Amino acid sequence: MLKNHLLKAIPKVDKFIEHSDFENLSKPIIMPLIRESFDLLRAELLSAKVHSVNEDKLRQNILVKYNDIMTPSLQKVINATGVIVHTNLGRSLINPESFDKAKEIATSYNNLEYDLDKGKRGERYSHLSKLFTKLLDCEDVLVVNNNASAVFLILNTFAKRKEVIVSRGELVEIGGSFRIPEVMKNSGAKLVEVGATNKTHLCDYEENITERTKMLMKVHKSNYSIEGFTSEVAFKEIAKLAKEKGLIDYFDLGSGHLVDLPYGLSHSEPSLHEIMKDDPSLLSFSGDKLFGSVQAGIIVGKKELIAKLKKNQLLRMLRVDKLTLSILTQDIQSMLLNRYENLPTLGMLFKDVDTLKKNAQVLTDEIKDLVTCEIIETTTLIGGGSTPNKKIPSIAVTIALKNYSPNKIQKLFREKNIIGRIENEKFLLDFRTIDINDIQYLSESIKCLATS
Ligand SMILES: *Cc1c(COP(=O)(O)O)cnc(C)c1O
């Protein structure tokens, strides 16, 4: 009897939803949440777990769940790790100017596949080839979804049921699940491993060429280095051998860059211009690693080979859309005008240590009365598989908060979408990757953490 009386106290859904707190909320989301919580409440009343109906509390619980669902999970974060091309944090940042221009094109009709001269169907890749062939002095270019797609498309087009020779020292696995041997298998190409893990010579390639060989491939050791008693064959020599034998030479470069790298990195990582001098038949790299643009796989090389790639049905599945094409086109224009500082990735890479120090000082001036902090000299990584194991100089601010452990501080910052790192048992914010416009938010967040 008593229970029946309590059950009657559960409000009617139609009435309950009329409360002003629920105004302007999404019905398809809020209705099931209300029903769910009423069902739960009914069960709890019947089992005497609860003994009354509190409408305010019910409403609050439902709103918490609603907000949890409606808050987009993809959010802005502040990268204070110092790793510039951070794959988990979105890799290369898009140049805002290029994005603005792309917005105009992508939010209106455009000539993506329309030839304005002839008044008939055109080709989406044509918008890029004009500029790109000038930038890299190459015969032709093709752009696909990412570099993994580029590798797959190239192997599938030219080496299906044929053999591709790769050095044992270059059978790389890139973060996630991109492994050269597996990609090759799925593309239909047969991998022929040559040499040893630490040493491969030109004769290893030469001696393994058979009538089934179609391609000699070099893969950039993007996230590891082999030290000690080692030797690898330069792409130049591989390309020369391939041409002598009537084979295709292909360099999967991973992270290609146009400008000479600072901090003495340029001799170990040649620029795209340098590699183009080796006359590659095919070369592919990511658009959003050190190239500094959008996610894309950029393939450059011989016109007749690119034409064959364009005929592969797979391309339809790997194609890029108008946003990618227009941002990339804008960025390439900037590059042709030598405005590399417009590209955020390169801007961060070339920022001098004194500027980083000044930025760090702006933050510490704001927070030094609230937390224990110190500006330190440190080193960081470029990331994105560009220069494995090579450190570049940076400046960081260490932060100690109450009696918290570095792990606890790191977690508290993470709750505010600030991703820092721990070094020598200290939590720190690395200024190599912090935008000056984000310092205000950083200082407000730190004040909030220090006073809560
Ligand atoms: C990064 C990388 C890839 C994959 O490129 P995505 O653009 O991430 O698809 C392939 N090969 C090498 C050598 C790489 O470094």
Number of domains: 3
Helix/strand structural class? alpha/beta
Q: What is the third-level CATH name, the topology of the largest domain?
A: Aspartate Aminotransferase, domain 2
Summed up, the helix count is: 18
CATH class designation of the largest domain: Alpha Beta
Instruction: Provide the β-strand percentage band.
Output: 15-25%
Cofactors and ligands present?
Answer: pyridoxal-5'-phosphate
Number of strands: 17
Computed Rg: 28 Å
The helical percent reads 40-55%
> What spatial form do the alpha-carbon principal axes imply?
globular
Present the secondary structure layout:
Elements: H1 2-8, H2 13-16, H3 27-46, H4 55-70, E1 78-79, H5 96-106, E2 114-115, E3 120-121, H6 126-136, E4 140-144, H7 147-159, E5 163-167, E6 173-174, E7 178-179, H8 180-187, E8 190-194, H9 202-207, E9 213-219, H10 235-244, E10 248-254, H11 272-276, E11 282-286, E12 297-301, H12 303-311, H13 314-318, H14 322-336, H15 344-350, H16 353-367, E13 372-381, E14 391-400, H17 406-414, E15 418-419, E16 421-423, E17 426-430, H18 439-451
Parallel strand pairs: 1-15, 5-8, 5-9, 9-10, 10-11
Antiparallel strand pairs: 2-3, 4-12, 6-7, 11-12, 13-14, 14-17, 16-17
Bound molecules: pyridoxal-5'-phosphate (PLP).
Q: Would you kindly provide a written description of the structure presented here, covering whatever features stand out?
A:
The structure is a single chain. This protein has 452 residues and is α/β, with parallel strands linked by helices. It folds into three domains: 2-68, no CATH class; 78-86 and 346-451, Alpha-Beta Complex (Aspartate Aminotransferase, domain 1), CATH 3.90.1150.180; 95-342, Type I PLP-dependent aspartate aminotransferase-like (Major domain) (Aspartate Aminotransferase, domain 2, 3-Layer(aba) Sandwich). It has helices spanning 2-8, 13-16, 27-46, 55-70, 96-106, 126-136, 147-159, 180-187, 202-207, 235-244, 272-276, 303-311, 314-318, 322-336, 344-350, 353-367, 406-414, 439-451; strands at residues 78-79, 114-115, 120-121, 140-144, 163-167, 173-174, 178-179, 190-194, 213-219, 248-254, 282-286, 297-301, 372-381, 391-400, 418-419, 421-423, 426-430. The strands form five sheets. It has a seven-stranded mixed sheet, sandwiched between helices. The chain is globular and about 95 Å long. The structure holds pyridoxal-5'-phosphate. Pyridoxal-5'-phosphate is lined by residues 146-148, 151, 172, 174, 178, 219-220, 222, 252, 254-255, 286, 297, 385.
